[in-house]
Amino acid sequence: MSEIAAPQASASEPDRTLIQRLRDNDLLASFLASKVTVAAGLVTLVLFLAALLAPWVAPTDPFNPATNYLSDSLDPPSFVAGGDPRFLLGTDDQGRDMLSAILYGLRVSLAIGFLSVALGAAIGVSLGLIAGYSGGWTDSAIMRIADVQLTFPAILIALLLDGVAHALLKPASRDESAFAVLVLAIGLSFWVQYARTVRASTMVEKNRDYVQAARLIGLSHARILFSHILPNVMGPVMVIATINLALAIITEATLSFLGVGLPPTEPSLGTLIRIGQNYLFSGEWWIVTFPSLTLAVLVLAVNLLGDWLRDALNPRLK
Amino acid sequence: MIAFILRRLLASIGVLIAVGLIAFAMFRYVGDPVNQMVGIETSAAERAQLTHQLGLDQPAIVQAARFLINAARLNFGVSYQFKQPVADLIAARAPATLELALVASILSLAAGVPMGVYAALRRDSALTRLFQALSLIGISLPTFLIGVLMIYLFAVTLRWLPSFGRGDVVRIGWWTTGLLTVSGLKSLIMPSITLALFQMTLIMRLVRAEMLEVLRSDYIRFARARGLSERTIHFRHALKNTLIPVITVVGLQLGSIVAFSIITETVFAWPGMGQLFLQSIQNVDIPIMAAYLLLIATLFVVINFIVDLIYVLVDPRLRVHLGRA
Amino acid sequence: MTRPLLSVRALRVEFATRRGPLVALDGVSFDIAPGEVLGVVGESGAGKSLTGLAIVGLLDPPGRIADGEIRLDGERIDNLPPARMRDIRGGRIGVIFQDPLTSLNPLMRIGDQLAETIMAHKSVGRRQARAQALAWLGEVGIPSPEKRIDGYPHEFSGGMRQRVVIALALCAEPRLVIADEPTTALDVSVQAQIIALIKNLTRRHGAAVMLITHDMGVIAETADRVAVMYAGRIVEIGAVRELVRHPLHPYTQGLMAAIPTLDIRADRLMQIPGAMPRLSAIPRGCAFAPRCPKAFERCAARPPLITVGDRGAACWLYDRAPAAADARN
User: Fold this and answer.
1) For A93-141, how does the pLDDT look when each residue is reduced to its tens digit (9 = 90+)?
2) In chain C, what is the greatest distance between 2 CA atoms, to the nearest angstrom?
3) Which pLDDT tens digit goes with each residue over B220-249?
4) What distance lies between CA B215 and its chain's CA centroid?
5) What are phi and psi of A96, to 5 degrees?
6) Kindly report the CA angle at B11 between A150 and B58, in degrees rounded to 5?
7) pTM of the full predicted structure?
8) Are C277 and C287 in contact (CB under 8 A)?
9) Contacts of residue B229 in chain C, CB cutoff 8 Å?
């Protein structure tokens, strides 16, 4: 880094080391100011890493039928009487190690979360850019569709799309396509927010000088839209995306819990909780408790981070 | 004013027709209606006859129109799965859902608004901090998780409340109610709280934010400068101005409570429309899916329309004064 | 003067910030006699509005009165419990704010807002309060008050709204009215009417006025005495006529010189070089010294308000101590 040895600092500003600049940075300061936010950040980081490294960190591979023995099924956690030391958090009804299942489930949940947010953002931002830039019929059409979709809560849309997709696919391939269908359904239920915000920003930007200049030079509309206008409207998109991540995770977990998401052969946290609920009354509490705790902690942490980010980026509070 | 109402009405009808067409598209083109209704041995001739009977050989526009007209008469066809008219199935289950939704809505308002007002007026009290923590949980945790955890606590561990079903219900004409029996009421407690929690925290946060914003406004400052008592300022000036923007949000949220009931009904095995809808998705029972979609859409559109009306009635700035000096 | 109605002594208002307290008002002292109109003039940020807010105890945290005394009719009002302060606000000191549209509750009828203010301070019933409200609307010049008393604020024009605000400030018969930029948000054509209304009504009801504004013209027309504020301090105070004709403080002199007049021919408008310092960067000593054409070594120390006849100027140029005699120009 050149900050520490920066002889050409402007005359009006004394040299500042990297540490000093970090300390003065408002965003970082507000992050560190709240212990809760820092804790949330750490937890999120740990969970993300655990999910990412699951194949290497998990004690067993819960999806390999060869290593799962039904004789091991429904074993309590290792720290409780009757527990098997091999399974830290117990096993489920199929003999799968809960810890491994949770790690892999976390992985799948987060994967769907990120991918669906990316999809929703991609669709929404594109449509928003086009609507704001073109105006006229295109704009009206896109906004009409958005209005109709906005009348309903996102989860209903996701549920419906999920159902229609399953209806269109052959039953045999339903399990394998569950991942893709979920990403599609959840992503499509979220595009509207992005579209509206980006459209508003685009309508402002398209009258600015730099856009007029680009048109004069003869750049194509697509080029103008994606290389010039897009970077300037991304700010609010980031905030929406962070908030949407928690929502996407919740939606996926809910759909899986309802039985229309990921199947038990490739369970997410929601699916595990669904399985676990069946065993609540018979005493095998660990199947529902540990995935529930993981999901709760994950969503809380992401929400807290989102809260902080929203406050930090809110120009009115500055 | 009349122009405004007409415009909103037209827009609402437009949305309904759009949704209706989508429902029709699902109904007609997703899966094969004829296939669902016949066995493997049915001859081609019989299939052709059935096709004609169902009107499936008519032009698409005619089919769409018939579908919409039928829907308006509450005729949604026959369920693939249950082989019964969809309308009957839904009607049988509607009271369960509506009762649950109503209780949850009242709960969320009755708890959310006072909590929000309190949190705005007593910003630093311990109770407010408790409310804030609770609201974070309420907004973060998925509804089904809250339901499962409640079952674990109150049904499994403490054994205070039943974990599934409606309990004993009393039939009054076409309606069945669980409000008149002890077991019915006990069964209602956990589902309604679960369903209400998200809305309650949303309302609480909204009311608190709005009230704080209002308390910062110039007319509140002027009211203070006139020496009005804190109570007058809070409850005569601030509250009314706070609740108006809240009305819109609350109205819209009430609609989504019916949608979220799908989840709650699944967690608590509550025999309502939501559960029916979910089963229809799992079993690809298109008529029920289409019917549910239309009903929910109608509900939302009607609620939106009513909220718009209320907004105009309540805020004098939006009213057009006729004949006032 | 006979015992002053309002007496402010060494008022100090601070804002608590992350980097330490910020001094917004530093040692402000002045009196207002019963029934007189005191103008308070200065640039934006000089502390005029803050002074008014501090007097009625409406400082928003993190602002607070850190030092000084405020007395109304001899008794201290800066340290009163909230309930007593509420009696004083509206009942003994009325306030008029700058923007009439936002000063009125948009969802409440004008008559109701008047009636509740009257009932808060006088023990009258609802019907009497409404009758008084009606009378006040007539006094402030609202045409056909019976028809308009049940109207909402958005149904009135800007000037009408400010008249209602004036009625609200006066309806509990206060002895002092603090008017904070009462005409700044109004059309120029309406400004003169409003100022005249304030002056006439207060005179009729025997109330003194603290007229806060940045418009020197309004002061010259309306006030009896005027205080000039700069960087949270009063730099000059005195009778309007004399101050305008023979300003003492260099800042006031600069202000007067900057006003273009019709009878003097000039190619350029006079300007005081530089700008008023920000609260966080007020220089030690005299706050105006960096911009003052007559600054000298003594200005490194902050000058008190020095009495010059029946006026006051916070400038070492007027200190009769022998050490400064040589430095006078």
Assistant:
1) 777 788 888 888 888 999 999 999 999 999 999 888 888 888 788 888 8
2) 70
3) 999 999 988 888 888 888 888 888 878 777
4) 32
5) -80, 140
6) 95
7) 0.77
8) yes
9) 86, 120
DSSP line for A255-299: HHHHTSSS-TTS--HHHHHHHHHTTTTTT-THHHHHHHHHHHHHH
Distance CA A110, CA B191 (A): 28
Find chain B residues with C-beta within 8 A of C175's C-beta.
Answer: none
Taking residue A155's Cβ as centre, other Cβ atoms within 10 Å add up to 23
Out of C58, C102, C155, closest to residue B225 by CB: C58
Asked if the Cβ–Cβ distance from B226 to C120 is below 8 Å, we say: yes
Instruction: Report how far residue B75's alpha carbon sits from residue B304's, in angstroms, rounded to the nearest whole number.
Output: 25
ipTM of the complex: 0.85
The token pair that represents A35 in the structure block: 């212990």
Chain A positions in Cβ-Cβ contact with residue B213 (cut-off 8 Å): none
Task: Express each pLDDT in C188-234 by its tens digit.
Answer: 888 888 889 998 998 898 899 999 988 888 888 889 999 999 988 99
What single letter denotes the amino acid at residue A111? A
B145 CB-near residues (< 8 Å, 6+ apart)? A253, A273, A292, A295, A296
Q: What was the pLDDT predicted at A318? A: 37
Comparing alpha-carbon positions, the chain A residue that sits nearest to B294 is A152
Eight-state DSSP code of residue C261: -
DSSP, collapsed to helix, strand or coil, labels residue C319 as coil
- Our CA-based measurement puts residue C90 at a distance from the nearest CA of chain B, in whole angstroms, of 4
Contact, C230 vs C237, CB < 8 A? no
Contact A288/B256, CB-based, under 8 Å? no
CA-CA-CA-CA torsion sign (C77, C79, C81, C85): positive
> Which residues have C-beta within 8 Å of that of residue C260, sequence separation ≥ 6?
C266, C269
Q: Name the minimum distance, in Å, from the CA of A221 to any CA of chain B.
A: 32
Beta bridge partners of C312: C237, C307
Question: Which residues does B243 contact at the CB level (< 8 Å), separation at least 6?
Answer: B113, B207
All residues of chain B having their beta carbon less than 8 Å from the beta carbon of residue C169 are: 226
B160: tokens are: 């205070």
Q: CB neighbours of A154 closer than 8 A, spacing ≥ 6?
A: A189, A190, A247, A251
Name the 3-class secondary structure at A185.
helix
Note whether B226 contacts C95, CB cutoff 8 Å. Answer: yes
Q: Which residues of B touch C99 (CB under 8 A)?
A: 218
> Using the beta-carbon criterion (under 8 Å), do A259 and B278 form an inter-chain contact?
yes
CA distance C222 to chain B (A): 24
Q: Which residue has the higher pLDDT, A251 or A176?
A: A251
**Measured distance CA(B251)–CA(B262) in Å, rounded:** 19
Cβ separation of C107 and B316 shorter than 8 Å? yes
pLDDT digits (tens, 9 = 90+) for C238-268: 999 988 888 888 888 888 877 777 666 767 7
